[in-house]
Amino acid sequence: MLLAIDVGNSNTVFGLYKLGTEGAPAVLVADWRMTTPSGQTTDEFGSTLRNLFALRGLDMSVVDGIAVSSVVPPLDWMLRQVSELYFKVKPLFIEPGVKTGLPVLTDNPSEVGADRIVNCVAAFERFGGPTIVVDMGTATTFDVISKKGEFLGGAIAPGLGISADALFSRAARLPRIEVKKPAKIIGTGTVDNIQIGLYYGYIGLVDGILERMIAEMGPETKTVATGGLARLIAGGSKHLKTVDEMLTLTGLRIVYERHLERNRKRST
């Protein structure tokens, strides 16, 4: 089985896949989301993973492949150690030099985050192009895929959580609140005033960028949202119609399967 690991600034998501054989599709057996570890040792993180597997009735020995997208370089060494010590597997990191099947037509392709690459791989596989992927995490990224399946570039904006934290930290009298869809558009209390501003303000940011990108790419452009806040924001957006919370893991699986296929061809 393949363990796909998406390491973000705030959260790390794992997906355990039973890969397809003889034309059968791959199956997501289990998935987990945890706070991205900070300061944990290899053994601490390995023990956490062992407990997560055990809670699902799974043994770590079922894993014979690991694919990683990481935007937190200081954790990469620890993840390599965990993979080799606890799973006895050499991990595949999505990094410059790894063939993904996605041409990257930016000024400096090595600057593009691994999560953005695998998101685009999965989105093009599912929707074709042109497509825009909006990944809502610590930052919100907009990634544009051409009709031919090329990564053209995109945009990066502060995430909704960062925006909320900035407001609360700079305005001492404003209380910290849960960010959710407000019940009305004209607030009558401090809490709903803040909720309205954050929720609809952020939808305005997302839709404003998408509107301009779609105008440039053409009206046939498809959009897909992913990330922890995708469902919340897509629910009020006029441009985001599809949500795929497993898009990054799917992209990791696809890249790994392509990697296996290339290795098989080399050995024959």
TrEMBL record:
Subcellular location: Cytoplasm
Keyword Kinase assigned: yes
Catalytic activity: (R)-pantothenate + ATP = (R)-4'-phosphopantothenate + ADP + H(+)
Binding sites annotated in the UniProt record for substrate: 113-116, 190
Alphabetized GO MF terms: ATP binding; metal ion binding; pantothenate kinase activity
Family matches, as NCBIfam families: baf, PRK13318.1-6, PRK13321.1
GO cellular component, one term: cytoplasm
SUPFAM superfamilies named in the record: Actin-like ATPase domain
Positions bound to K(+): 135
Family as reported in the entry's similarity comment: Belongs to the type III pantothenate kinase family.
Organism for this UniProt entry: Granulicella arctica
Protein name: Type III pantothenate kinase
Amino acids binding ATP: 6-13, 138
Cofactor: NH4(+); K(+)
